Amino acid sequence: MAQKIRYIPPERNTGCCEYKLKLVYEDAELRARKISHIATQMNYRLYQGKGKAIFIIGVSDDGDVEGITKEELDISLTFMDEVAEVIQATIYKRRIYEGKSGFIATLRVSKDMSKRWDDGDEMEEELQFL
Q1: HSE on the CB side for 11, CA within 13 Å?
Q2: Model pTM score
Q3: Which of 52, 64, 81, 93 is most exposed, with the fewest beta carbons within 10 Å of its own?
């Protein structure tokens, strides 16, 4: 059973963490625009995190940890793989948690694998709320 997340503080405009509730788009044109937009956000979060970023899926910007369905999570994770590919970044660690009524995922992202963090690194401070 996945660990349950009880609380996440609201998203900050700066720093290496970005929240996304879900990334499910049926319209191909809208989906392509969203990939481009979120690729820009990913680059910004990587810049803010000095080459490292964390994306949290299933959480709204205000920190609501409702979660999303397994199907929405799978679609959102595939979407994020495509975003990372656009900017030549790597999602190198995924963790799945339980929210209030669905799933939440954390994705660790890096463009330069020498700049990734491992458990215990100072970047873990960004995840103290998990």
Answers
A1: 19
A2: 0.87
A3: 81
